[in-house]
Design a protein that fits this description.
The complex is a heterodimer. Chain A is of the alpha/beta class. Chain A is 36% helix and 18% strand. In chain A, a hairpin with a 1-residue loop joins strand 5 and strand 6. The radius of gyration of chain A is 19 Å and the shape is globular. Chain B has two helices and eight strands. Chain B has a single domain, classed as OB fold (Dihydrolipoamide Acetyltransferase, E2P), CATH 2.40.50.840. The chains are: A alpha/beta, B mainly beta.
């Protein structure tokens, strides 16, 4: 069994004067403090990648910077699913006896260190170099294509999408570290400026600075939170190579993670689902079993995904409002799930959750990781 | 710089021809050119599409990634299912909807001729 013994993060938003390494160090130090571990107890380091600090060996670069001498260390790349993929690998490494305390960390300063224009241009390059990028797409355009097809086939409206932007903003209002905390309305989302139709500005996550970290250990912390199940699937890389934009075939991935944990959908009482765009959230909720096709917005309107609902969703505000700082953005979902299970979410705390289901998406619905965390 | 096989696709566009690969063994069509068929591994042949297809997905880009595309914005990016059995990204005329029958034209953009699909008004059986 592998346990989450501590979590930590920084505020998200514009953090002038910080670097990826300084941000990662802040989040890592907070996670170590919560785990009650000194630097010499960390024998493994897994980190993501940074847009502003491309490096061949980011994990050892960071280990040296923080003052760690791990016996196991490397970076990992699965786009937005990297955070969840690192936690899955950390669980396997602890289970195998390779490490006793792994630090999982990511941080970036895309907003202040790179700027929006440069980030938008860089991110568009994840498209197919010879057959997509020449047409001038952006990440919102790739997801705009998905949205057009998924909405067409399953009867979803732009107002349905807007519901999720409004909910994420309402949740972020209670997090002091969130980038956007001012409540928004459905009408404001619908009236926000077009980016890549049908997606508008408030359907899209922001570009942020920030970091997140957690420690995965062979011995439990207090309270005892284990990584109970994990699974991946990687159906394609590029949107033009996806077999079906109305069915990405993710049900099996979610099911394998829940089977490993020995639970079903009804046992889950907290959700942390990747939300780079509003459409991402609808697709993932419906594919991983938390709403019938085309019905995620109906469930939201019925209160299912609110703080008082059956499945409280992204109570930190998600990528859409807490912020998106590359790999750290996806890792922030794990930090929030850890805090909620531990009862340490402060004003955001929901009624004693015991089983969290998480799902990360990398690329253009390209790389997927499902996780189950359980409070013992 | 496009890879050498992709260059053959773009040379076709410059000549008003939509080139793709077809597998002589399993019959699969693929747009992203490779030295092998991605389904069965055999060496594929090159073929020219008639340029007729159906809109599979569509977005209108207002926020462009680079200054050269900002001059063009807003522009429609499509995924089109070609009748020969492959899907491709392309530009489209404004207002196209999913399910619309379209045919390929080509527009100059920088050094390239970009495929741009327009409504197909009359179809030959």
């Amino acid at each position: 069994m592998a346990w989450i013994s501590g979590v930590g993060d920084t505020a998200f938003g514009r953090l002038e004067g910080e670097t990826p390494l300084s941000l990662m160090a802040s989040a890592a130090s907070a996670a170590l403090a919560e785990a009650g571990l000194e630097r010499d107890a960390i024998d493994g380091v897994l980190c993501g990648y940074s847009g502003t600090l491309p490096h061949l060996m980011l994990a050892t670069l960071f280990a040296e910077y923080l003052g760690l001498k791990p016996r196991y260390a490397h970076a990992l790349q699965a786009g937005g699913a990297t955070g969840a993929a690192m936690v899955m690998l950390a669980e396997r490494l602890v289970e195998r006896g390779e490490c006793r305390n792994l630090l999982v960390v990511a941080g970036d300063n895309r907003l202040s260190g790179q700027g929006r224009d440069s980030a938008v241009e860089m991110l568009a390059q994840v498209g197919q170099r010879d057959y997509e990028v020449p047409f001038g797409p952006t990440i919102p355009a790739y997801y705009g294509l998905i949205a057009s097809r998924y909405m067409h086939v399953h009867g979803i409206s732009e107002a349905d999408l807007a519901e999720f932007a409004v909910l994420m903003r309402a949740h972020a209002a209670l997090h002091p570290g969130a980038q956007f905390r001012t409540p928004i309305s459905i009408a404001e989302v619908l009236a926000s400026r077009p980016i890549a139709a049908p997606l508008k500005l408030l359907d899209c996550c922001p570009v942020s600075d920030g970091a997140a970290a957690l420690v995965v250990s062979a011995a439990p912390g207090e309270p005892r939170i284990c990584i109970a199940g994990a699974a991946q699937t990687h159906p394609h890389q590029h949107v033009s190579s996806a077999a079906d934009l109305a069915d990405f075939g993710l049900a099996g991935c979610a099911e394998r993670a829940r089977e490993e944990a020995g639970i079903g959908v009804d046992d889950v009482d907290f959700l942390a689902i990747y939300d780079s765009f509003t459409i991402t959230l609808l697709v993932l909720l419906e594919e991983t079993g938390f709403a019938p096709r085309g019905k995620a917005a109906d469930r939201l309107r019925a209160g299912v995904f609110g703080r008082e609902g059956l499945w409280p969703l992204n109570t930190h505000g998600g990528l859409l409002s807490f912020g998106h700082s590359g790999v750290a953005g996806g890792l922030a979902h794990l930090v929030e799930a850890g805090r909620q299970l531990a009862g340490r979410a402060g004003a955001r705390q929901v009624r004693q959750p015991e089983i969290a289901f998480l799902h990360g998406d990398g690329g253009v619905m390209s790389s997927h990781v499902s996780l189950v965390l359980r409070r013992e | 710089m496009a890879d050498a096989l992709a260059e053959r696709f773009w040379q076709g566009c410059a000549q008003g021809e939509l080139r793709y690969q077809r597998c002589p063994d399993c019959g699969a069509a693929q747009l992203h050119a490779r030295p092998f068929c991605a389904r069965c591994g055999a060496a594929p042949d090159w073929a020219a599409s008639r340029g007729l297809g159906t809109v599979y997905a569509v977005t209108h880009v207002t926020r462009a990634p680079t200054p050269d595309f900002a001059q063009l914005a807003p522009y429609a990016i499509l995924l089109v299912d070609l009748d020969e059995g492959f899907r491709m990204m392309a530009h489209g005329e404004p207002g196209l909807a999913i399910g619309q029958r379209v045919c390929a034209t080509f527009e100059a953009h920088g050094a390239r001729a970009l495929p741009r699909f327009v409504r197909l008004r009359e179809e030959q059986p």
